[in-house]
Amino acid sequence: MRSIRALRHALFCVVAGSSLLAAAAAAGAQTLPTQTWPTHVVKVISPFTAGNAGDTVARIVFEQVGQQLGQAFVIENRPGAGGTLAADFVAKADPDGYTLLLSSASLSSQVVFHKTLPYDAIRAFAPVSLISVQPTVLVAAPKDGFKTLAELVAAAKAKPGTLTFASAGVGSASHMAAERFRVAAKIDIRHIPFRGAEGLAEVMAGRIDFYNVPVAPAVPLLNAGKVTVLAVSTAKRAKLLPNVPTMAESGYPDAAYVFWGGIAAPAKTPRAIIDKLHGEIQKALAVPSVKEKLAKLGAEEEPLSVDQFTKFVSDDMAGTLKLAKDAHLEPTD
Asked: Is the dihedral of CA 166, 169, 174, 179 positive or negative?
């Protein structure tokens, strides 16, 4: 097992120009029967619980991919330990294209919040394809009366350490999005982690001040007046909430946060399999019925090649490590 310091050193070597992730994607013996892949069921290991937004997106996409290839792609949920159980399982799987990881921004969080990992977070996986990006929105308790992000920031600066934000757990997307906002706005606020989405109920009840939630579940809550939506975390406005400003438009460009979902394979998986799967995923994402289902979930497309996705993952990890340093985030185990 490698220490976090060693992982950080290795990552910044990647960012400096030695693209280890790209090498992992391209490496591997090409003698396996890649031409006929897949000949049996493919397992997609999900670090999420069934019904989670990322898990639901994967099921929609891989149902279509399975139809295209004539083989079943089965989503197998292995939640727990901040996503490390699923990642470890795939890291140790045979690199034959039959065990895949539903990867996400949580891969970067794992490096931050665990002193050691049972796998090499940089070299253990070969990125295959980005599936979607899912904007999160900052929602506030209606009782607080905040109408804009500027008003929330002003209240936080007037009484440092008083305002609270909830998350779905340490290292979750809701946590990391809020930490990025906290650092960008230079405010002193308190983190109250919950298990799952319980924190959102606390915001609606007025016991917690704000929460970063995926855009799709925010829409009905906004329409019902149960929350006030102040800003979208991504660089551009969310299609489901076109009238809600972005963090940048609200004055905090450094607070932008992207929660993404993609697919990775074990390192040394033949590049021919990676390229074939990438192509089938892109084909599935272009199917009108798939596009419609994903749009309803707030999942937005961002087409990337295999090499572009490899760089995307590397950049995301580097950005998360920088956030950890700026926000003084420490490992929890």
From this structure: positive
How far is 286 from 137, CA to CA, in rounded Å? 26
Q: In what order do the strands lie in the sheet with 210-214?
A: 190-193, 164-167, 210-214, 136-140, 228-232
Full 3-state SS string of 216-248:
HHHHHHHHCCCCEEEEECCCCCCCCCCCCCECC
CA angle 27/128/279 to nearest 5° reads: 110
Q: CATH classification of 136-255, choosing from 3.40.50.2300, 3.40.50.1360, 3.40.190.10, 3.40.50.300?
A: 3.40.190.10
The one-digit pLDDT tens for each residue of the chain (333 residues) are 445 555 555 554 444 443 444 444 444 444 446 789 999 999 999 998 888 888 999 999 999 999 999 999 999 999 888 789 999 999 999 999 999 999 998 888 988 998 899 999 889 999 999 999 988 999 999 999 999 999 999 999 999 999 999 998 899 899 999 999 999 999 999 999 998 778 899 999 999 999 999 888 889 999 999 999 999 998 899 999 999 999 999 999 999 998 899 999 999 999 999 999 999 999 999 999 999 999 999 999 899 999 999 999 999 999 999 999 999 999 887
Measured distance CA(327)–CA(139) in Å, rounded: 21
CATH code for residues 2-134+258-327? 3.40.190.150
With CA atoms as reference, report the closest residue to 87 among 333, 324, 264: 264
CB of 236 closer than 8 Å to CB of 246: yes
- Cβ contacts of 193-202, under 8 Å, gap ≥ 24: 193/166, 193/167, 193/168, 193/169, 194/166, 194/167, 194/168, 194/169, 195/168, 195/169, 196/49, 196/168, 196/169, 197/168, 198/166, 199/166, 199/167, 199/168, 199/174, 200/139, 200/166, 200/227, 202/166
Rg (alpha carbons) of the chain, rounded to whole number: 20
